[in-house]
Amino acid sequence: CMEFQQIHNTLNQFKNELGQINNVIVVPSVNLFPIPSEIILGTYCNTNNKIPILHAADIGAAMEVLSKDYVELPSAFVGMGNPTSKNRGIQIPLNIVLRNSAAFNEDGIFDVEDLPPLPDASQEVKNVSKLFDRSEVLLNVEASVSKALSESQNNIENIILLATHGIRPSYESGIVIPSLLSSEDGELELFESVKVERYDLDGDIVLLSACDTASGFVDRPDLFFTGFVTSFANAGGDLMLASLWPVYSKASQEVTETFVSKWKDSSIYEAIDSSKKAPQNSRQSLPFVYIYP
Questions:
Q1: Dihedral, 236, 238, 239, 243 alpha carbons, nearest 10
Q2: Closest Cα partner for 118 from 104, 97, 100, 102?
Q3: Do residues 214 and 225 make contact, with C-beta atoms less than 8 angstroms apart?
Q4: pLDDT at residue 262 in the model
Q5: What integer is the mean pLDDT of 28-36?
Q6: What is the DSSP code string of 205-266?
Q7: Nearest to residue 10, comparing CAs of 41, 35, 39?
Q8: Fewer beta carbons below 10 Å: N end or C end of the chain?
């Protein structure tokens, strides 16, 4: 926060001149990734200056957001969570579990079976589904990303919640495309971001409750907001929740549940604000970003 104090002071002067600011639309600079906008703008550093932030992919997207009444909460829900294989045993929820790619054995080889289960992700999907009259829930052995996206095509507009492990590229292990853990026919597989573009998801809201889903190809800062963000945008997604780096599983659950429940009764900006305040440890909400593509 100290490194951006001069920017904070300048923005505070603008705020004093403009008066009340209800929300901020940010078009991120690749030169500052993956520093969260809350730190750059000072809304995280100053507890009395909390303002909801929505990220726009470019100036055109920002102008579109500003020119219309923002998208309403869809009436249908499709969610998948905690993909497991038929061979998985007892699952114990752990608050310290990260939804990322900590699955390298002693030889440095990546194995999807070594990823820890995410029972709280199952509960996350169940809890959010209760907020909708129409819902499709895919959990555990049935938690397939491809099935969730296929089901989404059957409704006009949906909220799609994918609560799973996010896998960032690791060229040493042969993973070259951002992926999500998925259970396909009872076996754990990696669902690559490029496959999303096979689906028609026009107007859908996509909640990527997993690690590194906004980071894209993380070795290059100019390729943040690529990977799943680009693919869901190309498939027609209207808004996305994604993450800049690995996230705590419990915090991810709290953010998504709070966002949807609050949006149901208020504006999307109030929902963003509430969701970012949901984790008890405020640092755990920093990697989550809301993106209008």
A1: 10
A2: 97
A3: yes
A4: 96
A5: 75
A6: EEEEESTTTTTSSTT-GGGTT-THHHHHHHTT-SEEEEESS--BHHHHHHHHHHHHHHHHHS
A7: 41
A8: N
Rounded to the nearest 10 degrees, what angle do helices 268-277 and 249-265 cross at? 150
Of 148, 110, 114, nearest to 129 by C-alpha is: 148
Question: Which one has a higher pLDDT value, 129 or 8?
Answer: 129
Residues near 165 by beta carbon (within 8 Å), at least 6 away in sequence:
83, 99, 100, 101, 115, 118, 180, 181, 210, 211
Tell me the two tokens of residue 260.
Answer: 């949807």
The dihedral over CA atoms of 41, 270, 256, 190, expressed in degrees to the nearest 10, equals -60
pTM above 0.85?
yes
What are 110-153's pLDDT values in tens digits? Answer: 778 888 899 999 999 999 999 999 999 999 999 999 999 999 99
What is the rounded CA–CA span in Å between residue 54 and residue 276? 12
Report the distance separating Cα 232 and Cα 263, nearest Å. 21
Q: What is the three-class DSSP state of 167?
A: strand
Note the pLDDT tens digit of each residue in 104-115. 555 556 778 888
Helices (H), 98-157: 119-129, 145-152
